[in-house]
Specification:
Number of helices: 9
Strand content: 15-25%
Distance between the termini: 132 Å
Order of helices and strands: HHHEEHEEHEHHEHH
Helix content: 55-70%
Number of strands: 6
Shape: elongated
Length: 318
Amino acid sequence: MLVIFSLAGLAGCGAATKDSAPAIAPQEMAEARNMDMAYSMSNSGAPAGAATRAEVEKTGEDGGVVQPAGGAGVRYVILNARLTLEIEDIEETTKEIQKSVKQLGGYVVSLEIYDLSRERRAGHMSVRIPQDKYAYALEILDGLGEINNISENTSDVTMHYIDLEARITNLEAQEKRMRELLDRAENMEDILKIEKELGRIRGDLESMTAEFKYLQERVNYSTIDIRLEERDPRQETVVGGFGNFGERIGNLMALNTNRLLDGLANFVIVLIGSLPIIVPLLLLIIILWKIVVRKRKIREQKSYSPGNIRLPGGNGKE
């Protein structure tokens, strides 16, 4: 009710001025009071969306706006999905997804590619799609690979959407009214009061406008989080049963052979890559071994020298 008190103060100051007309007429005070009451109602959760119903109906064809059957009213829904896409080549698939998302009017939020093994890569991709193109986007993804582990969630934000819209409309009206009063103010005290109230209104308006734009973005665009996984090129999908018993054995032997060859190749690669360490170690071991062998020979020669040979029953001298 700070607006009413400030407006009443302006009226009193205007009446006390002899050579000037009243700053605020009674009719203007009533209009300001009505706007303040409307703002209070919107803050208390009252159905203040009626003032913007025409605008709400006008946006009914947006992707995030749903019109239920039976005339229940416009609904605003946030739709998100998460899935795993098994593919052949991750680079080609990501290019196709980016191209399709752009054609649908969406955009890519993030893209990450990393290695699972030497033969397989994986990645994560997050895209935003206009909500009315959501089903079509899933069809495109299904055509690029095999969709697994899909989960979808929806959130109805109708009340929050309409409440924010009504609050913004009321704050814009208050701001316009306060600017008109500021232009008519004639003393410094009135100007300071109006500017203080105008600053509060402007701060609330900017905060709510930013929140409303973010909510509109989430309503109009669905988020699809995609985990990309390449198929293992070393094996093929085989249907179960004894009818393809030989084929399954052949695939398993091929898989194990590939694993053995991969293991040998990795060992050779590690061995060659470790040569700068292995060669000096081998040289050091050879040098130490030769030193030990030489010392042993010298010790044996000393032990078998003629001066150290003792005859049985003698004094050790010839």
